[in-house]
Amino acid sequence: MLHTLLFWGLPLLFAGLLVWLRRRLASRKPWLRMIGYVVPGYALLGAYQLLSDRLSALEKAGRIDEETVTVLSEPAVLQQGKTIYDTRCVSCHGAQGEGAVGPNLTDDYWIYGGSIRDIFRTIRHGIPNTPMVAWKHSLTDEEQQAVSNYIYRLRGTNPPNSKPPQGFLYVRGK
Ligand code: HEC
User: Which residues, including other chains, have CB under 8 Å from residue 133's CB and lie 6 or more apart?
Assistant: First the structure.
């Protein structure tokens, strides 16, 4: 929103600057007039670039996506993740993540990768043409992050009746 305002405000600022400079520079020598236009013009462009970068950074901060999702250990987050898992995921992945229609989520083998980003991406976007739907339509970004973290922590729990490994061995970085 602010970004758009800034972008469309730029031509206005340029026009204003031009009018102002024309008045101030009218009686100057031609070479001085030239510099008088070019330098403030560049300064305005530079200021726009700087502001625009800062705004992008601000907009990105606090947003959860597959780039910014992180491993969290707050009990409240994990509890939230468990509640989501228990209501939405158990039917296909088993009460303890042991696997059923969907793969086992407690072992070291992953079809789509076992990093927090991989898990988040799978949950967010789903796997086309499989029963694993994209959850971005029914879970908020925070909820996707919470359930990703809940699953991330199921590793090594080794529940009974575990489904055999599927996918490739994912070695978690220290
Ligand atoms: C209707 C059944 C179904 C439900 C409900 C379901 N899944 Fe899945 N899920 C699957 C299937 C099937 C796959 C494997 C797809 C494939 O083989 O390509 C999968 C794959 C996954 C994977 C990737 C596993 C890997 O090895 O890479 C994750 C993570 C996952 N699901 C998490 C969840 C979470 C979290 C929920 C609840 C919010 C959920 N699933 C709900 C069926 C389901």
Answer: 126
* Burial class of residue 20, CB neighbours in 10 A (0-12, 13-18, 19+): exposed
Nearest-CA residue for atom 43 of ligand 1: 132
pTM, entire model: 0.78
Q: How far is the CA of 123 from the centre of ligand 1 (A)?
A: 7
Per run of 10 residues, the mean pLDDT along the chain (length 174 residues) is 84 91 89 90 92 87 91 97 98 98 97 97 98 97 98 97 96 76
Q: How far is the CA of 42 from the centre of ligand 1 (A)?
A: 52
Q: Which of 82, 91, 93, 130 to mutate to test ligand 1, by most ligand atoms within 8 A of the CB atom?
A: 93
pLDDT value, residue 109? 97
CA atoms in the 13 A half-sphere facing the CB of 116? 18
* Spatial separation of the C-alpha atoms in residues 118 and 172, rounded to whole Å: 12
Token representation of residue 59: 């907009």
Q: Which atom of ligand 1 is nearest to the CA of 89?
A: 37
